[in-house]
Amino acid sequence: MEFIHPFIKELEPSQLEELRQSILYKKVKKGTVLQLQGDINIKSYFVKKGLLRSYTIDEKGKEHVFMFAPEGWIISDMESHSKGLPAQLYIDVLEDSELEIVEKTILEKLTKLKNTEYFDKHNSLLINRIIVLQKRVILLMSATAKERYEDFLSTYPNIIQRVPQKLIASYLGITPEALSKIRGQLTK
Amino acid sequence: MEFIHPFIKELEPSQLEELRQSILYKKVKKGTVLQLQGDINIKSYFVKKGLLRSYTIDEKGKEHVFMFAPEGWIISDMESHSKGLPAQLYIDVLEDSELEIVEKTILEKLTKLKNTEYFDKHNSLLINRIIVLQKRVILLMSATAKERYEDFLSTYPNIIQRVPQKLIASYLGITPEALSKIRGQLTK
DNA sequence: CGAGCGCTTGATTGAGTTCAAAAATCGTGG
DNA sequence: CCACGATTTTTGAACTCAATCAAGCGCTCG
Questions:
Q1: Is A142 in Cβ contact with B58 (below 8 Å)?
Q2: N or C: which end of chain B has fewer CB within 10 A?
Q3: Contact B126/A131, CB-based, under 8 Å?
Q4: Of B79, B82, B124, the CB nearest to A82
Q5: What pLDDT is stored for residue B68 in this prediction?
Q6: Which residues of chain B does A129 touch, with a Cβ-Cβ cutoff of 8 Å?
Q7: Which residues of B touch A111 (CB under 8 A)?
Q8: Which helix (H) or strand (E) holds A138?
Q9: Residue A133 CA: distances (Å) to CA of A128, B73, B137, B188
Q10: How much is the pLDDT for B9?
Q11: pTM above 0.85?
Q12: Of B124, B154, B117, which is closest to residue B139 (Cα–Cα)?
């Protein structure tokens, strides 16, 4: 129930119980694909332990990593869901993980509660996402691959050791070869 | 009061009056700079008529257009505001415009109302922003300048005639020269 | 009417891609 | 725990897209 925790402090046991029914605890193995582009039954994934990622595959067949989600993060396509759209993103498992899988029905339940604290927290999550995306757009427009990599290093130092470089390259929007050469330059 | 309109259907006259005090109607001339990067007293701008844009200037001194806001759009740094950060973006006026300038105090007033409809609408606005940003990140990572321009053409057909090409180039993350050459290719 | 700004066009340069092949690392079954 | 095959990473050469630099044209608006 860590997923709901930050949202709501004061809830009656019966309300809590109802919410709990929309949350499924699950251990998943590395390599599992949790969500495919185009899926309609969108869920959110709270990472208790492990590491997930979301990504797209473009018309040319190329993968583009959208985000990594280590412990404590929520990964989802809630954007798509709220709009009633099919999933834009794939989500898969990079390390054996323990998840809270949150059904979309929880959104309606939370809304029904008319709990302004929940709305506030949810807003704040969305705003965080916007700030991160905004920064990424600006980086993609104005920074060289090297600068983007250095920014990644300082922003997500803990992710680097856990993820193959090709995925980091993909996140940065460059080829694995290019990243390898940049790393070569930086260490020498 | 168009700004509040979509948020709230049922409000008592006294509540409405209080909200109104946080909203200022103003005509502004082309070229006016409404907000500077670093400003603390952040406002939001609802465009009744005209055209605004937001942009950053990076460490190398280059401008990057972040978004255009024609009639009916809201432009702001609400993200930064909610986090108590200074403005990330400049905002200026591309055409003589009529605006509703919304003080940040309105946020607190709206929150106090505990009006869940407002929260819902606000959430939905934020999610829209996320979807747009998400698409833009993917485009920047996976598409050539030409493809990005063609996407811009189909997504914002009405903006093109109203904005100098150098600003569109900046929005796309390319130089004006590059855009000019792409346009050359497309018309021949 | 002139100065400056915006758009175009061309030549040159450079960051990053693509293709290919070798070196290093990982994971799995025996 | 080792060995072998598969996947990742590195390295190099050729190429491409877009940036930079530079020059010329056409408008506008002051």
A1: yes
A2: C
A3: no
A4: B124
A5: 94
A6: 130
A7: 116, 120
A8: helix A116-142
A9: 9, 20, 8, 36
A10: 64
A11: yes
A12: B154
Residues of chain B scoring pLDDT < 50 = none
Q: For residue B87, what is the nearest residue in chain A, using CA coordinates?
A: A131
Residue with tokens 């432009």: B75
Chain Cα centroid distance, residue B125: 12
DSSP per position, B133-177: HHHHHHHHHH--HHHHHHHHHHH-HHHHTTS-HHHHHHHHTS-HH
C-beta of residue B30 within 8 angstroms of C-beta of residue B93: yes
Which pLDDT band, with edges at 50, 70 and 90, does A19 fall under? confident
Q: Could you tell me how many helices (H) and strands (E) chain B has, helices first?
A: 8, 6
pLDDT-derived band of residue A7, with 50, 70 and 90 as boundaries? Answer: low
What's the one-letter identity of residue B93? V
Q: How many CA atoms lie within 13 A of A74 on its CB side?
A: 21
Per-residue confidence band for A26, with pLDDT thresholds at 50, 70 and 90: very high
